[in-house]
Design a protein that fits this description.
The chain starts with a helix and ends with a strand. The chain has one domain: Cyclophilin-like (Cyclophilin). With 185 residues, the chain is an alpha+beta fold. The chain has three helices and eight strands; from the N terminus they run αββαβββββαβ.
């Protein structure tokens, strides 16, 4: 009987763990393939909540990767000026907008900006992150404790690598790739 209760407890624990881990996974669909992302709710809960809220509302669908620097990162998430088909879409202004929600207070951590890290973009004000985010192509230690890392690509990084690169200096992309969809797994 004790063994049965023990086995039941173990199964229950793993079931809750899997349920929790699925809640913190997102699927980013690009024209090259699907990318699975794990979110760091314990490290940056407000950034994760914002990211999931905008994704669940479909706000990221159709948004361009407006700044992409080879060997560094791909930036997207301007739901105001970077959303193709949106009323305010303007490729020249993509990267200057955000959502109608208030800016977020920084949630800096010791999480390293390594290949596949998702982190919130911001202005020079540490508390200005809103909707824009970037995915690191390579390690970028100069961003550590300066930007709020909130997730990481766990499958499909090869598809992120295929995102069209921009100008080597500014990263501006003239005919950018876009997010086909972004949703909870």
């Amino acid at each position: 009987m004790k063994k049965l209760i023990f086995l039941f407890t173990i199964v229950l624990i793993f079931s809750f763990k899997n349920l929790y881990s699925e809640e913190n996974k997102m699927i980013l669909e690009l024209k090259y393939g699907k990318v699975e992302i794990e979110l760091y709710n314990d490290i940056a809960p407000n950034h994760v909540k914002r990211f999931k809220t905008l994704a669940d509302q479909g706000m990221y669908n159709g948004v361009v990767f407006h700044r992409v620097i080879n060997g560094f990162m791909a930036q997207t998430g301007d739901v105001k000026f970077g959303k193709t088909g949106g009323a305010d879409f303007n490729l020249d202004r993509a990267g200057t907008g955000g959502s109608d929600l208030p800016d977020l207070k920084a949630e800096f951590s010791d999480t390293a900006h390594v290949r596949g890290t998702l982190s919130m973009a911001r202005s020079s004000d540490p508390n200005s992150a809103n909707s824009q985010f970037f995915i690191c192509f390579e390690s970028a230690p100069h961003l550590d404790r300066q930007y709020s890392a909130f997730g990481k690509v766990i499958k499909g990084m090869e598809f992120v690598d295929m995102i069209k690169k921009g100008d080597p200096q500014s990263g501006q992309v003239l005919e950018p790739d876009l997010i086909l969809s972004l949703k909870s797994k």
